[in-house]
Amino acid sequence: MVDGVKEVCKKKWRAVRCCYDFSANFFQKPTPVQIVGESRARELEQSAQSARLALQAWWANNARDLPWRNESTTPWGVLVCEVMSQQTQMSRVVPYWNAWMAQWPDAAALAQADKADVIRAWGRLGYPRRALRLQECAQQVAAQYDDRLPSDYDELLALPGIGDYTASAVLSFAFGKRVAVIDTNIRRVLSRAFLGIESLGGSCTPLERALAWVVLPKAAGESAVWNQAVMELGAIVCTAKQPLCEQCPLRAQCAFVKAGMPGLGERRTRPRQKFAGTDRQVRGKIMQALRALPTGQTLQYKDAQKLCDDAAQLDRCIASLDEDGLIEIVNGHDMRLPA
DNA sequence: ATCCCGGTGT
DNA sequence: ACACCCGGAT
Predict the structure, then answer these.
(1) Stretch among A17-21, A117-121, A191-195, A289-293 having the lowest mean pLDDT
(2) In this model, does residue A125 exceed pLDDT 90?
(3) Fewest CB atoms within 10 A around its CB: which of A17, A81, A123, A245?
């Protein structure tokens, strides 16, 4: 089996393992209702129904006015937005998304773009590998799907840079399918509102995933608004440390409030790497210097040395950027953005 | 479990 | 300083 196929199979296996809804019959995994428990599931569905009404009204009045929340946004535009939003605040994404979609309105356009232009347009959004994967994704969509983003979970998941969250978000927001979108915000809100406990972070637990499916509105059209609204509530009101419960449309029924908010803000935060002095910082400096250069011009190694005191670290970072395809090595040790 | 990035809020 | 941000790949 060639590596490419192996990768897709691994991703697919992870996908079905995560989505009990899809795999329950074949793999005999427990359904969300079974995980939550039959009677508990009925209670949650009832509770979710009243929450949905309150949330819809809140959403209508409080949703942020973001450019991709527009009838004319294509599925591809939704995907670009979701990829840019991975680990990046929405407010910072807005100008980048506007410029990006103006320059490359569809997958076919991005597929043909110069790598250097793609990296430059990604600017300071962070995690520049996301930009390369988005272009690889565009190339596959253009070549394999006639420039139309597939509306199938497994096919989306097989594309570069698309994981469970992004695949689900595209299905829900772009195609209106009934899919539970699960990110840190939604996990926090649902866990608080319906279970009365904090979502502790780390990887998504089976219970959290089951909960998201159980409280998801049955009607597909309502499920998309639900996903958006729960996420928005988590971003604006039901924040991690200082939730604005006075403004919350769910405060009357919130299990977390009823329980006295035990362990508010407690979060076994996934051990994130520090930034100062790490390879990440050095890589960022190198990319920043390269983006500032005119197209095709090289960054001299001696100039790169000014960016990092540790010679071994500098070499390591240059090598890793080369491995990632973010830079090209010229004349042995000088650098430039890839063609 | 670890790495990747940069801006913002506290 | 520190956690957080609509995660993904390894």
Answers:
(1) A17-21
(2) yes
(3) A17
- Which DSSP category does A294 fall into? P
- For domain A279-336, the CATH architecture is Orthogonal Bundle (1.10)
> Separation of CA A319 and C1' B10 in angstroms?
37
Q: Which of A10-19, A100-109, A240-249, A303-312 has the highest mean pLDDT?
A: A100-109
Cα radius of gyration (chain A): 22
CB A232 within 8 A of CB A66: no
Fold classification of A75-174 is Endonuclease III; domain 1 (1.10.340)
- Sketch the domain layout of chain A as residue ranges: 1-30, 75-174, 279-336
| Cross-strand pairs, A328 | A336
Average confidence score pLDDT of chain A: 88
| The one catalytic residue among A71, A82, A208, A222 | A82
Give alpha helix (H) positions in A248-334. Answer: 255-258, 279-292, 301-304, 311-324
Element (H, E) at A328: strand A328-330
Whether A184 sits with its Cβ under 7 A from any strand C atom: the answer reads yes
Give me the CA A142–C1' C2 separation in Å, rounded.
43
**Nucleotides in chain B with any atom closer than 7 Å to protein CB:** 1-8, 10
Residue A27 has pLDDT above 90, yes or no: no
Residues A89-102: pLDDT tens digits? 898 999 999 999 99
Of residues 171 to 210 in chain A, which lie within 7 A of strand B by their beta carbon?
202-203
**Distance in angstroms, CA of A241 to C1' of C2?**
13
Which residue is closest to C3 in terms of CA–C1' distance? A269
